[in-house]
Amino acid sequence: MNRYYWILGGFAALVALLAVGLNLNPRDVPSPLVGKPAPAFTLSQLAEPEKTLSPKDMQGKVWLFNVWASWCVSCRVEHPILVEFSKKVDVPLIGLNYKEVRGDGGFDMSKMPADEEKKLAWQRANQWLSQHGNPYTLTVMDLDGRVGIDYGVYGVPETYVIDKTGLIRMKHTGPITPEILAKKIMPLLAELNK
Amino acid sequence: MKRLFAKLAAILAFGLYLNATPALASSATEAALAADPVAEKRLTKLSEELRCLVCQNQNIADSNAELAQDLRREIRGMIKEGKSDKEIIDFMVARYGDFVLYRPPVQGNTLLLWVGPIALLIFGLSALIAYQRRRAARVAAEDKPLSADEASRADALLKELDNK
Questions:
Q1: Which residues of chain A have a CB within 8 Å of the CB of B67?
Q2: Domain segments of chain A: what residues?
């Protein structure tokens, strides 16, 4: 009889292990950037292309850095939440437009001159924001995705919380849900802004 | 029988065809970039060690995801700048974490991964040996000739069967 308890116990342990394992999200890769300084960049702004922005310009502020693109389908799910957030909360929300033209997949980049890509990217990004609302304090344009690589972007949308000293305090991959905003991001922002 | 062989041959040929296509496709896209064969060889070797984060079961040498292409471009750039393999791997780990490495490093949080299977094997073997020993002891203990009482009962039962 004793032996059957052993087998039953082993089986229960296996079920527990699989239950935990199958409920983990394999896309949720812990970012090594959390706790590290936000990688530097200098990129052109969407609203005023002659102006640039660097993370050091945001020093002294707690801010959100949200990676988006007009071709990104899950960004559409997330967008209304960001629009709502920007109306209610006084925290700068900086957008990183990630590979607006190249990421689309519908263009032959080998045949597109750089200035044409630039024009098209600005046009598409502006159009998307005027269509869906603009929650961003400002957006910077990462045409070739190099800044995205420095931030370890691998699935748009992604969101970073950056503190007053310029350290990345949180990274969220995938669309922000109201739950994640309420339970993780808002408490963190409140704590960092204390 | 002949038809069966023909079918098998067709299946085999189709299988070979399936196997051959991806190789053709990837060599076509990479050929244009392979101006420097030594650098390309290093690129291939490095990118076979790195996981593509978009399609997680592929390395960035195999994957045609946008990000994998960008990362190959980055690695190519770093090779041209004369960076060492370690510097390039560190660049990737700094951005995407240990998860990009197809061969996880032996360290505190991966110990279970490395030692677990061996520990499980040792546990299983020792459990098997222990069980076998106990069983052998039990069989030895029980393997006695029948007592006179038992023998007469067995005879009675056998007789009952014969009578049926």
A1: 154
A2: 31-192
- Probe site for chain A from B66, B71, B88, B128 (most A CB atoms < 10 A): B66
What pLDDT score does B12 carry? 55
DSSP codes joined into one string, A54-72: -GGGGTTS-EEEEEE-TT-
Question: Where along chain B do its domains lie?
Answer: 2-108, 111-163
Mean pLDDT of the B150-157 span: 90
Indicate if the alpha-carbon torsion angle A68, A155, A176, A72 is positive or negative.
Answer: positive
Q: Which fold has domain B2-108?
A: Helicase, Ruva Protein; domain 3 (1.10.8)
Tell me what ipTM this predicted complex has: 0.79
Q: Is the pLDDT of residue B16 over 80?
A: no
Residues of A in contact with B127 (CB under 8 A): none
Query: Hunting for tokens 């660049």 — which residue is that?
Result: B91
- Decide yes or no: CATH 3.40.50.2000 for domain A31-192: no
